[in-house]
Specification:
The protein is mostly helical. About 80% of the residues lie in helices and about 0% in strands. The longest helix has 21 residues, at about 1-20. The chain is flat and about 55 Å long.
Length: about 90
């Protein structure tokens, strides 16, 4: 019986994955954010993200990681959009 339940669960997951992939690309971000937010209840995941944020902040303080200004980030994003306009189209 457990095997049958697992098979049904896997089939349901695959069906939902297929449905999400048929959504416009802009909706993928929304779904991804919701999924990630749903993990926020997991203390282990929160601890891992906190440790990663701390590691990055420490690296920045030691000069190992540099900050990128919003202006530079936007310039890079606009350049990417011009190079690959199809990537940015809402599907």
């Amino acid at each position: 019986m457990n095997i049958l339940r697992k098979l049904r669960a896997q089939t349901e997951i695959k069906a939902r994955e297929t449905a999400v992939m048929k959504l416009p690309r802009a909706n993928h971000v929304h779904v991804a954010e919701k999924l990630i937010a749903s993990l926020a209840d997991d203390d282990e995941i929160l601890a891992a993200w906190a440790a990663e944020a701390e590691r990055r902040a420490d690296g920045f303080d030691r000069g190992e990681i540099s900050a990128v200004s919003i202006e530079a980030t936007l310039v890079q994003a606009i350049a990417h959009q011009r190079r690959r306009p199809e990537y940015w189209k809402v599907r």
